[in-house]
């Protein structure tokens, strides 16, 4: 009897310990899951005109995880209209951080600027499986630490499910893998009442049309081994602007290439905005080790600082398409996509090496992305 009681007690203790471990794991996982849904607080510059939701363009986004903020800045003078989106792929943080920085520092002297930091808001709410990406990046600022989410390439499957076996793009009929239905940069020009991702794409396209936007930027990142990297991708309508920007950057020591937008690249912003709107679209693609397949340890430092021993080895044997040394991706100039010539006037207290000019249609061609320590 005593032996039976002892075994029963031990089983009870084992079961209790197991339940406790499971409860701790669930609690920890739930905390991380919920933190991915906490939207960053941005502090717009005093020049902000207004903030509105994409659901103002497409009411079918109202209350959905795809709805996101659009920031409008208007200058006192007449000029052109500019759109910059980041976070179409939420794991490509250069775009999100660039647009967030502009939201907080921008001043426009002429014309209008529309900014969308989280183009795919749903993709910000999860991370990519088996990639070991950090969930957050923390930056130390004069006002204290600030935390920004590191999202995923695709819309959260919790918000758009199930994936079809094959995704057939509306209009073009292009057939892609089913998961691509959650890829915002394969969903343009979008569908008003389609999948969540298509509804977001439709709203952005219609924003361009409604506001007669002259020049549109879509900021991306990719791996150092990707063939189209540190590049300005422009369609036939944007080639004049992009060519001048590329020449200007190269003359100042920035290592950037000009790439055409193939007419059969359906679903991508630079192609579909050309075919369905009057804007001049440009996609910016910079290199980031955290996006690559050859990387070593993956953590927040790799995303922000960009140093990686494995990519140093890859550079020595010519396996990547950007110069890489012990300091990360090497360039004759360093900075982020937002630190090159921009049409903004920074507050004196925040001013660094960024140059200050006014946004206008004729000056717009000098906006282009440069290198950054973490890209």
Summarize this, please?
With 375 residues, this protein is an alpha/beta fold.
Describe this structure in words.
The chain is an alpha/beta fold and 375 residues long. It has two domains: 1-35; 44-366, 3-Layer(aba) Sandwich (Aminopeptidase), CATH 3.40.630. It has helices at 2-35, 93-105, 196-210, 239-251, 269-276, 300-304, 309-316; strands at residues 48-53, 69-74, 77-85, 110-116, 136-141, 144-149, 166-168, 175-177, 215-222, 231-234, 257-260, 280-287, 324-325, 328-329. The strands form four sheets. It has an eight-stranded mixed sheet, with helices on both faces. Helix 4 (239-251) links the parallel strand 10 and strand 11. The protein is globular. It starts with a helix and ends in a 46-residue tail after the last strand.
How are the secondary structure elements laid out?
Layout: H1 2-35, E1 48-53, E2 69-74, E3 77-85, H2 93-105, E4 110-116, E5 136-141, E6 144-149, E7 166-168, E8 175-177, H3 196-210, E9 215-222, E10 231-234, H4 239-251, E11 257-260, H5 269-276, E12 280-287, H6 300-304, H7 309-316, E13 324-325, E14 328-329
Parallel strand pairs: 3-4, 3-9, 9-12, 10-11
Antiparallel strand pairs: 1-2, 2-4, 5-6, 7-8, 10-12, 13-14
């Amino acid at each position: 009897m005593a032996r039976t009681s002892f075994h029963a007690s031990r089983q009870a203790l084992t079961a209790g310990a197991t339940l406790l471990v499971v409860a701790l794991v669930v609690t920890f996982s739930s905390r991380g899951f919920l933190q991915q849904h906490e939207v960053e607080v941005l502090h717009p510059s005093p020049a902000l005109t207004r903030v509105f939701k994409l659901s103002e363009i497409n009411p079918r986004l109202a209350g959905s995880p795809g709805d996101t903020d659009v920031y409008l800045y208007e200058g006192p003078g007449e000029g052109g209209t500019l759109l910059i989106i980041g976070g179409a792929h939420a794991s490509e943080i250069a775009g999100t951080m660039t647009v967030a920085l502009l939201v907080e520092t921008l001043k426009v002297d002429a014309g209008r600027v529309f900014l969308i930091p989280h183009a795919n808001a749903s993709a910000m709410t999860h991370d990519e499986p088996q990639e070991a990406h950090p969930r957050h990046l923390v930056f130390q600022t004069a006002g204290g630490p600030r935390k920004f989410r590191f999202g995923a390439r695709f819309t959260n499957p919790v918000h758009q499910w199930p994936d079809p076996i094959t995704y057939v793009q509306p209009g073009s009929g292009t057939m892609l893998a089913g998961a691509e239905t959650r890829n915002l940069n394969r969903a343009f020009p979008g569908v008003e009442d389609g999948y969540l991702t298509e509804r977001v794409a439709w709203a952005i396209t219609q924003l361009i049309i409604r506001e007669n936007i002259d020049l549109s930027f879509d900021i991306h990142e990719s791996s150092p081994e990707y063939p189209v990297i540190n590049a300005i991708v422009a369609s036939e309508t944007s080639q004049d602007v992009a060519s001048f920007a590329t020449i200007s950057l190269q003359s100042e020591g920035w290592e950037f290439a000009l790439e055409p937008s193939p007419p059969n690249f359906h679903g991508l912003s630079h192609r579909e905005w050309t075919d369905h709107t009057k804007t001049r679209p440009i996609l910016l693609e910079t290199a980031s080790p955290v996006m690559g397949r050859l990387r070593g340890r993956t953590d927040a430092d790799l995303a922000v600082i960009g140093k990686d021993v494995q990519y140093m080895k890859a550079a020595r044997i010519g396996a990547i398409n950007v110069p890489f040394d012990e300091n990360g991706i090497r360039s004759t100039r360093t900075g982020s996509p937002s630190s090159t010539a921009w049409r903004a006037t920074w507050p004196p207290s925040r001013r660094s090496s960024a140059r200050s000019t006014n946004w206008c249609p004729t000056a717009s061609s000098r906006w282009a992305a440069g290198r950054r320590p973490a890209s």
